[in-house]
């Protein structure tokens, strides 16, 4: 009889916890859960929207999203699942539309308008873009290209909003470290950088300093206190903290100023300073100042010319006498300097105003100013991305700065992008400073001409190698080539039957010295160093060992790398698994009235090289 009862035992007879454990198994899909919930009331209750089963289904499908929820939140995981699915469909639609709209033009300034009015949570949308970027294999290059552009824009907009909120706070609530992180995030929006993780790394260093302090002075007030809880008044106790900091930072952890590669932009990014343990005076000073304040020593930033410093008060707090302070060079391993030694450091005398303390906004201004100067120096980056990003940051802090507004207008004009935005900037400049009418008028005239030319354009010319007049063209688009003279690897993305550049370019590049001169096919190529060149046919040869070309714009022209060559850009479809589509229909029948339904770039190249 017991055997007969055992035979009659079914899924619904199992204890609730065991039933949940089975339904949470990772071999079951969302569609399976939907079908199970259709069978009876017992199983429908086990698969309730706020229950463990749908939470686990959500976690298995999108594990990175759980960080947005608290264990105490009452969440309808089924609704979250549906919302995330819809966000995925919306992201795919927008990425696909970008590929169709912007293949033959740079994404215009209003091209992201669809994204600014998203009908879904932004973190769901971003997660889908990351899923596209993290697709394995050599396919989906076009989707990845536009997903990256959209994610770049979306994150920068959020960071810019956070920066403006930061600048509106009272000065005592503006952390120097947070400001540095915001700049870092804006210039590296695709990197995983957050204040919490940076602060955790700084806290680890602070704990190491406490250990050193404990060995030298077990009763030191900084040993037992938590970050920022106390302010040590005694100068000798402060000195002990600074000595322990120098020991940990420069002797144990080997932090140092990057004298060999001073003008590398990585030196300005706080997360890279922590990774590489090197930086420039201002980035190392932000780190040094943050640790000191967490240990109860109030250091202040000094906007010293050519070399950012910190100052440490030795006299009465708030003193205006520059000789009441010792100056600290975080770039020089925490060396403590007198006023005269500060002048020796830069090689000339400066007035007292340069020894004064500066605000967090002024510190950020100097950090962004450094990046601006680096952006102007970068000749290999044809998109001038660093210069564009640093201009955005500067104008977020000082929106009416005519000099930088003019630089931004000229930059966009030079790149041939966003002419409508150029006109808006120029109008703003004219309102701020009418004396700029000459420069403004010149740019307005040429920008309007550019807009008119663009209206007259009929699209790119379609050329066929099979035409008799193109019989001299030997190489196809997508082939991996090697330059005979310069040795670089590249991929062809366009060609002309003869050199189409102007006489000045032909003369500067000494094209006439080639055996066939300009009267031979020329190829547009994407080079492995990130540049774009215009190369003569006689200087190119097939690469006997073809490999992927790590160019940032490869996805604009090609959809896939086959292992030997690239396939030209075509429309790709990325769909959810079939069972998920079924889930959406099934779930709607079970949990809703049935009324709802789940629904499914060309940049102006500065061409170089022969």
Write the layout of secondary structure elements.
Elements: H1 2-8, H2 16-23, H3 30-39, H4 41-46, H5 52-61, H6 77-101, H7 113-116, H8 122-133, H9 141-168, H10 176-187, H11 195-216, H12 221-224, H13 235-252, E1 256-257, H14 270-276, E2 278-279, H15 281-294, E3 299-302, E4 309-313, E5 325-329, E6 335-337, H16 339-346, H17 360-377, H18 385-397, H19 402-415, H20 419-432, H21 437-456, E7 480-483, E8 489-496, H22 503-508, E9 522-527, E10 532-536, E11 540-542, H23 554-557, E12 558-561, E13 566-568, H24 578-591
Parallel strand pairs: 1-2
Antiparallel strand pairs: 3-4, 4-5, 5-6, 7-8, 7-11, 8-9, 9-10, 12-13
Helix pairs in contact: 3-24, 5-6, 6-8, 6-9, 8-9, 9-10, 10-17, 11-13, 11-15, 17-18, 18-19, 19-20, 20-21
Task: Explain what you see.
The chain is of the alpha+beta class and 610 residues long. It has 24 helices and 13 strands. It has a 5-stranded antiparallel beta sheet, with no helix packed on it. Helix 6 crosses helix 8.
